[in-house]
Predict the structure.
Amino acid sequence: MPSLLFEIGCEELPAVVCETAAEQLPDLVRAHVGDGELNVLVGPRRIAFVLHDVAEREEDRVERRRGPSEQIAFDPGGHPTQAAEGFARSNGLAAGELERAEGFVWATKRIEGRPTAEVLPDALAALVRGLAFPKTMRWDGSGLRFPRPIRWLCAKLDETTIPVALEGVRVGGSSSGHRFTSHEVEIRSAGDYAEALRNAGVEPDQEVRRAEILRALEDVGEWSDPRGVLAEVVHLVERPFVLTGRYDERFLELPLRVIETVMQSHQRYFPLGPGRFAFVANGGDPDLIVRGNENVLSGRLDDAAFSYARDVELGIEGMAGRLDSVRFHARAGTFADKAERLRALCELLGGGEPSREAARLAKADQVSTMVHEFAELEGFMGGVYARQAGIPEAVAAAIEEHYLPDAAGGPLPRTAAGRVVSAADKIDNLTVAFALGERPTGSRDPYGLRRAAIGLCRLAVEGGLEIELPRLVQQALTQLAAQSAEVTDDPSDVTGFVLERLEGLLDVPVEFVRAARAASVEELGAVARLARTLATEVEDESFARAYTAYDRANRLAGKADGAAPALDPKLATDAAELALVETLGAVAPRIEAAVAERAFTKALAAASEFGPPVDRFFDEVLVMAEDEAVRANRLRLLLDVRDAVGLLGDLSQIPR
Amino acid sequence: MSAPTYQEMILRLERFWADYGCVIQQPYHTEVGAGTFNPATFLRCLGPEPWKAAYVEPSLRPSDGRYGENPYRFQQFWQYQVVLKPAPDDVLDVYFASLEALGIDPVDHDVRLVEDDWEGPTLGAWGLGWEVWIDGLEVTQFTYFQQLGGLDLDLITAEIVYGTERLAMYLQNRTSAFDLEWAPGVTWGDVYRENERQWSVYNFEEADVTLLTRRFEEDERECERLLEKGLPVPAYDLVLKCSHTFNLLDSRGAISVTERASYIGRVRALARRVALAYLEDRAVAPV
């Protein structure tokens, strides 16, 4: 069976376009061309695939069309009318060949599958139009839209050139080699494609390019890629050449991370340890290229050194002094206002003096030239400038770390003060956004609030920080209002928003987290521990008893109307009823006390004591008594039992 | 070929693009942040008429000044601007040929087109294209315009913006723009360093905020008045004046983040009205 090559030749595509195209091609090829062994090849100037074992023809298919009704198609004598003749003719049949069924006439045609070569011109054009990208452009009057101009299409079914039906684009059996060292390349047969391009200075297979780059980097030394630019670099070159260069040791006075950021963010270089770097070129004379890149890096580092020196001269206190002229949010005051809120939050979080001092200085680097140029260095630069100014290490480290964790699974701040300032910053960000009516919606989360909420959960669960959200949010809100921010919303739903993140974070089924979220504890770490306790104890006998008591009481009384507002023990008459009232009086305070001291296993053991009395109550007592007052009192009794166990959460969330 | 002086490099670009068929224009007389603002680009790239032009443009970015102390950042630098409307299919090859005319053979170098989505918020303009890197140095911005004045374009223009200092630094193997040989025996620094220092003082310290704030409003009103009179071409100059005044206010630190968005919105609204009026105007009397 034949192989099909299809190549969309473009002007240089962004790396992310190469990747999105590669993701979409398998489905598009299956939909428009068919099955087979697929090899996707993408790079800066081409989106291509080779499909092996393509069917030679479409499959035959049967088409059945409904015509006029039988009354219209046949006259009373049973002869076909003009309407029947016309319908038959339009389907290439004689009237006698029409079927009669369900009150209508039908034309059944067998349609022979066309040869694949005939189908492909339209199918491949549809495939091109089926590729979807977030940002596209026009480049001529053809009406086509694509991320960059399409300059040629090359399609071969084995040795046959397929004239793809896309107007305004050069279509044929040739491709283009390396932009500068090669020209048009004739593709003789689909199977020759990769080889033909390799001979023309292009490695079409992204995986081969990636492997070549990795191998060459291994050869040149201790390379690193702190910002992860490799994936992009793979799509910036058609044939990779890894070269190395040097930079002047005088730049080593700059923090290493600044040097690496300059290298990677602008130039996509790979640091090779002090004074050296590696980069990936697309061709050319190595001596010239290395010299050029060394000059560029030297210029960039000079620029960074200039900015750094200016920042150091101003100093972190000088920067902090300017925070009152920089807006944190258009409707929520300046960074100086924010620093005040952070200090108060740190205090409330139980942070010591280092955390409060760090809160005062944490945002100072927002006015530094370095952070203005490299936003990703926020926090880090603050730490550097704090150390330059002789500020105690505990404070400097907290400033440096307070944006952590900044990625899923990324590290938490190492220092206690760092964890406190980090939590304060996240609580403040959440409160400000919620109070100003800017909650995240759907995929829109411009302030990264979901990540902040997950960070808070991790600071509590893994970092052991006590985070009692309602109090903290209230504190930030009160201060915001006092600073005359334009508060429009009540932000108390921050707590629920953050607790919801625990569901994805803990290693227990979500039902246990949902159950624990409804408990009387609000401290993040305690909710997490409760969820884990419930999950651990779920198979235990005492859990079963507490669960059954909760469940039976809730099922009967939870939805019933007419419960008394408070329990009146004097209205209890039956022995089983009296026994349950007595258990409630003894057990409820113990559950409450145990939950208050976060002794959840102990609380669960106490709750399990409801088991036998609740069972006996249901066996012996008629809740829906004739006497309205007695009935109301019994419903209240059950609700009180449920609520006592419910201090441990909404157990009905847990499937049994 | 020996390394051309700065002025020789510009002369070669002029020659190359004149031979290609461009109208060689001169820098505009009103302050602009980039060659795109010159009416030879902004106005001429509207509408269905073909147009090819090239010119040097002094680009003023008040807040980029560094008192002549930083060899890479200036409040005034020089772009070489080319617009080709409609963009020819081989536009990239033509551009690479212009590099060869300067003595840069792409075969010997690592020439790369690196994704760049360009946006000019005050002009309501955007396009897709690249930064062109030669051996790691960005020397050109290449853009296929998609919108100007917030309007979809009839014909797609390719805009080629050479950063002349960068390009000359590359050609002359210099790491400081001040050391570029402008003419034999005269450096770029000789011609412009003191200029940089004095303008940086003005832009950052001396520009009169009250006066500029008033001027912005006056120019905005004048622009609207001219639009009502059916004079989009002079009205456009007032858009440029507003845009530059805004940049000066910004470099004086006189504009808060919120105000910033509002100023940009005001200039963009004027640019859009000018674009619409210009299109209507040339529909009556085609250019």
